User: Fold this.
Amino acid sequence: MAVIGIDLGTTNSLACVYRDGKAELIENELGSLMTPSCVSVLEDGTILVGAAAKERLISHPDRTAASFKTWMGTEKTYSLGGRSFLPHELSALVLKKLADDARRFLGEEIEEAIISVPAYFNDNQRCATKLAAELAGLPVKRLINEPSAAALCYSHATGREDCRLLLVDFGGGTLDVSVVDCFENIIEIVAVAGDNHLGGNDVDQAIVDYFCRENGIALDSLSPDCRARLFSLAEAAKLHLSQTDMALPMVLREGEQSWGARLDRKTLRTLCDPLFARAGTVIARAVRDSGMSAGELDGVVLVGGSSRMAVFQEYLTELLSGAPSLVGNPDHIVAQGAGLCAGIKQRAEGLRDVVMTDVCPFSLGVASCVDQQDRNPHMVFLIPRSSMLPARRSEVFRTLYEDQKQIRVEVYQGEQYYASDNLRLGEILVQVPPDRAGSQWVEVTFAYDINGILEVTARGSGGDVRRRVIVNPKLDLSEQERERIIASFEELSIESGAHDRDRYLLARAERLFAELTGPARREAAFLIQRYQAIIRSGRQALLARERDEMQERLDRLEAFLQADWMLGGWGPEDEDEDWDEEDDE
Ligand code: ADP
Ligand code: MG
Assistant:
């Protein structure tokens, strides 16, 4: 039985195990370490997760979902092929897939998983993550904050035992900044700050907006298909500019029409500056909350795919007057940290027990009125932001008017003075004996545990005691409901095994078909039909042989497509002359 660590990302998810003295990332069925956090439902109801689903974002946008972690803990529903899903349900499918791959890779059952979540995740989002694991049938006792995982990996990899680090995790949909103090076997998060809606996706959006402005087109006027292609074009341009600073011509075609724009690093930097300014504010807040000055920090560790952007590194260097450091691959560091944590959990030899302490990322409190006429209650904070976890505080609230029969304890999270400007987490009603104003009371206790889950207890002066874990009421399922959903999840068929690779190849061919034009598009159609015929024939040996061949031919089409973007429509020089023939149509 194995314990695994999981980085359940907005864009990509990874799993890791600790064995033979190191944190080893787990390969998925397609041989890759990153599984895109995408889900797509096929026409027959079969569910695809990962690379195959990501391919379908373009060809079947209405049946495919991505970036749902951004909405974790909310009631945003995704309707995919007639079935609706909540964000934690889609996450459950991703977790299920990761667990299947891990089982196959390790050849053993999964005893437990440790899932990393952004330090900035609020209570709802954490509960939703645990619920997702439950739906996936994956036992999860502990969530670990992503920066703790990254710091664990950093101190393990560098052997540094005494350092203060600024961790900047710039991912697909979120930015997480933390200040971490490592000393001997203690990893202490001293401050965290973040933005749950700032990431590489926003950079893509900024490039798309720029492209539309340059061409005088409205994004809404493009077909959904064309819009999706524009987004992947923007992302490709962004990735390209992380490698070189050569200006990149972007070309988008639809039918007879074509549009173009040039993107270079300088332009990209200008487009990103408003986003970076938001990142700078978050960084400043984390450093300020840590009580350290920028000069006291021993290093800046970059985490997350977007931190690979050259323009972002350049911005950080200016901001912090010093270059940030890259330890290993910023895409892997969180998963590896979660894997180390799994090793510690299993008491693996060679791993010292590490004490990880966290802080509460938000202030938590109760809405309180000055008197009965007060229509705009203000906050009384029980647990201020950056308190050490676990934290436990109590506060007494008194009745406001004569013969008041109950006291409503409304729980909020946030930093604003007025309660209504913060996030409402829930409420508890407590009965009190009718009496003179102010003579009866409720004692409210907040217990915030190491997983970042809040338990509220309200004790009325008359003996009425109410206790509950505060979660979004929509996620607070009854036992029966929970069982029903778990059972309905077990029935879902998620594609895996060799079929998964076939689905991936076909989905990729379909996406290329949608993106290409002319003879290259016909080539894609030919590949789809031929491959489907082989699958239908049921000849397994032939199919096994054909998989690599199909992969190669798709790689060639992909290269052709890339060249088409970069060079503005020149065909390949050598082979298959007929490709060029109609290329200027
Ligand atoms: P998350 O943790 O949110 O799942 P990741 O850390 O995997 O996200 O980062 C995904 C984001 O990183 C995407 O927006 C992707 O476009 C971006 N990204 C990945 N590689 C690069 C690169 N080389 N240059 C710039 N951005 C990159
Ligand atoms: Mg991440």
